[in-house]
Amino acid sequence: MRTILSSLLLFLSLSVHANEAALNAEDPVIEARLVKMAEDLRCLVCQNESLAGSNAELAQDLRREVRAQMKAGKSDQEVIAYLTERYGDFVLYRPPFKPVTYLLWLGPLLFLGIGVGIWYLTLKKRRNLKETPVDEKQIAAAAQLLEEK
Amino acid sequence: MKRWIPLVLFAVLVGFFAKGLFLNPREVPSPFIGKPAPTFTLPVVGAAERTFSPEEMKGKVWLLNVWAPWCVSCRQEHEVLMSLVRERELAIVGLNWKDKKREAEQLLDQQGNPYVAVPDDLSGKTGIDYGVTGTPETYVIDKSGVIQMKHVGPITPEIWEKKFEPKLKELGA
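Structure tokens for the assembled complex are given below, as produced in the milestone run.
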């Protein structure tokens, strides 16, 4: 009798535990989508943390909101549009490519171009230096000076 | 002449960094400037049967001040707001943001109430709709219900003089 009771209790405790775990990850698909998206979003309170990693209250609220919208069937783009409407492009760790961000995205290329330009000019200058005709007289004078020693 | 070029470039770089160093990272440009204020209907603190919605303010220039009883810098701001409404006619709506401990009513009773209405945003959803990142934040909304300015952080008398006063004048308040 005792063993039956204790095994029953054990079984019950197991099922309770399983239930809790299920509640934490109610919908693993949405949870995975949330984490993936929130990693590219900025927490507005601790600005160098992502929305996925931040424990700030606002970040929790926003995650809850994103989760709710995903559950309601909104696509990732729609959820991101919802956030940028309210917080601007600042929430995105990958800013969109548009006129104000042209310099941001193309800046590195621009600097690379400037570097290549300077490199090219320097090489060209060196080549021109090499091609200056050799002054025979000067060489003779130099040789004479060396021989004098 | 040519050897000055690196120094000049360096000075430009220093200029950029100096500017960046003194910018306030909290001053996130709000995408709402020039857009209609999001609408909401919320119960009002201290008046159980009343609700507040921004439509009630049509035809007036008004401020939406997002605050909370648990917010320390809001206490300082509270005094500034009190002296402002004592001196002049000013419609400030105080959105009570995420007041989970329900302290707003008591606090306003004790320390005075500078607000024409205190909508109660317990869940914080309305704050999110306005792009609030923290308290206090203040929006200036014009007669047609369009957001004209946003200020992040407490209002001090200097900030009021420099930022709010000219804006309100421009909007004809």
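The CA atoms of residues 38 and 129 of chain B lie 7 Å apart. Residues 5-21 of chain B form the longest helix (17 residues). Further analysis is deferred to the final report.
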